[in-house]
Amino acid sequence: MVRVLIAEDMHMLRKALVALLEFEPDIDVVAEFSDGAEILPRARELRPDVAVLDIDLPGVDGLTAAAELSTAVPECRTMMLTSLGRPGNLRRALAAHVSGFLLKDSSPDKLSDAIRAIAKGERVIDPQLALAALDDGPQPLTPRELEVLRFAAKGEDSGQIAAKLFLSVGTVRNYLTSAVTKLDARNRVDAIRIAREAGWL
């Protein structure tokens, strides 16, 4: 019996997933919830075989929870569900030791088969996402540009970033301008959005 934990914030979708999996004789849904903050404590308590996580959860997002699970409950393998087929999300998921990555519009059979495969130690990646990741171009920013953009993404202004990185305010602005230009963004907010969607931040 494969013991499964489900975290999905959309109530109707979560209930549909639970109902679908309960039809499978060899899959047992041991917990379901809508908030990512519940994943780690419940997984520690219940020790599921597979955690099926929405990528965009309130509290703690699915990728952060997956990374925490890989350390705290290593026997629990994780599968991400997303409606966003962004190549960057796949790269981030692999970095978080995720075993599976499926789009939410996958068929029910595909989901249950993926859960079984992941429980056996296999990796299951949606072919469309894998191809998109291969087609995605290289990351164009320098390590310093990425670092400055990361601080900007946290809401810090040029002066605060300069103080933290021991740079002049002008140099920080130059890095931000360069990042905006390289990403063909309208401004720094747009550059942050592009970098996040690509999984670089």
TrEMBL record:
<dbReference type="Pfam" id="PF00072">
    <property type="entry name" value="Response_reg"/>
</dbReference>
<dbReference type="GO" id="GO:0003677">
    <property type="term" value="F:DNA binding"/>
</dbReference>
<protein>
    <submittedName>
        <fullName>DNA-binding response regulator</fullName>
    </submittedName>
</protein>
<feature type="domain" description="HTH luxR-type">
    <location>
        <begin position="134"/>
        <end position="199"/>
    </location>
</feature>
<keyword id="KW-0238">DNA-binding</keyword>
<dbReference type="InterPro" id="IPR001789">
    <property type="entry name" value="Sig_transdc_resp-reg_receiver"/>
</dbReference>
<dbReference type="InterPro" id="IPR000792">
    <property type="entry name" value="Tscrpt_reg_LuxR_C"/>
</dbReference>
<dbReference type="Pfam" id="PF00196">
    <property type="entry name" value="GerE"/>
</dbReference>
<dbReference type="InterPro" id="IPR039420">
    <property type="entry name" value="WalR-like"/>
</dbReference>
<feature type="modified residue" description="4-aspartylphosphate">
    <location>
        <position position="54"/>
    </location>
</feature>
<keyword id="KW-0597">Phosphoprotein</keyword>
<dbReference type="GO" id="GO:0006355">
    <property type="term" value="P:regulation of DNA-templated transcription"/>
</dbReference>
<feature type="domain" description="Response regulatory">
    <location>
        <begin position="3"/>
        <end position="119"/>
    </location>
</feature>
<dbReference type="InterPro" id="IPR016032">
    <property type="entry name" value="Sig_transdc_resp-reg_C-effctor"/>
</dbReference>
<dbReference type="GO" id="GO:0000160">
    <property type="term" value="P:phosphorelay signal transduction system"/>
</dbReference>
<dbReference type="InterPro" id="IPR011006">
    <property type="entry name" value="CheY-like_superfamily"/>
</dbReference>
